[in-house]
């Protein structure tokens, strides 16, 4: 029987692109409309059915994250808190989390990424069942900002290029990586790039060289937003507000997902709603139970 997949949220880094607003608070604690940014990547792991999650933060920010999120038990989850003393590339996360993973497959999501779309849980759970590695390609207007997938004439992945001056395709690799238990070992073999970082692309290339990497394309029905700039942070907040107010449904609610998954019961959800008093989020949670605020 295969081991349960564990989750990693990489919420470290210094957030310099968002200065001055991140000079006193971690980027991943900033609001995206009505919830902290980290709720959105957390909800992605929960939709994939993952309950055992390591959260990697800077040493100075960890206490704030813990005050916000606790040990995960409010959502039927288990959190392990890890520190990233210095941001040295995305692949570093697998070295920091190696003991936590203990050979288990993982799903890592970046703490500033937001995903939305009909069928997202099914897409995530299919990736969770796959062998080797699975990443997601998303069509963007500015692929040179990202790792970009290079396809051959038959549509097979040739390589993944990090921030190319001229992009070989418009498909960027999103900040969500489903990798098997060999990821830390592969990360250990990565040498720092010219910018001094352990690049996640190097880990993905090792899977690709063995024919063990799948790139799933997220089509028109999906939204992927990263919130690393002032403009994209505002865009993400407006996106969440528009959808939630138009549809009357929450995006990125760990409370709702935990209840739907059966990880917390009605009494637990009612207790969570009481935490938020009579604000719109608390009223929404009570509405899930058919109760008025």
Secondary-structure blueprint of this entry?
Layout: E1 6-11, E2 31-32, E3 35-36, H1 39-47, E4 52-57, H2 62-69, E5 78-83, H3 92-96, H4 98-101, E6 106-110, E7 113-117, H5 120-129, E8 133-139, E9 147-151, E10 157-162, E11 171-179, H6 183-188, H7 200-209, E12 213-218, E13 222-226, H8 230-247, H9 254-260, H10 266-275, H11 280-288
Parallel strand pairs: 1-4, 1-6, 4-5, 8-12
Antiparallel strand pairs: 2-3, 6-11, 7-13, 8-11, 9-10
User: Please, how many domains?
Assistant: 2
Number of strands: 13
Q: Stretches where pLDDT falls below 50 for ≥5 residues?
A: none
- The end-to-end span amounts to 45 Å
Describe the structure.
This protein is an alpha/beta fold and 293 residues long. It has two domains: 6-137 and 173-262, Spore Coat Polysaccharide Biosynthesis Protein SpsA, Chain A, CATH 3.90.550; 264-292, no CATH class. 33% of the residues lie in helices and 24% in strands. The strands form four sheets. It has a seven-stranded mixed beta sheet. A two-stranded antiparallel sheet has the order 2-3. It is globular. The model has no long low-confidence stretch (mean pLDDT 93). Its EC number is 2.7.7.24. Keywords: Magnesium, Metal-binding, Nucleotidyltransferase, Transferase. Residues 6-240 form the Nucleotidyl transferase domain.
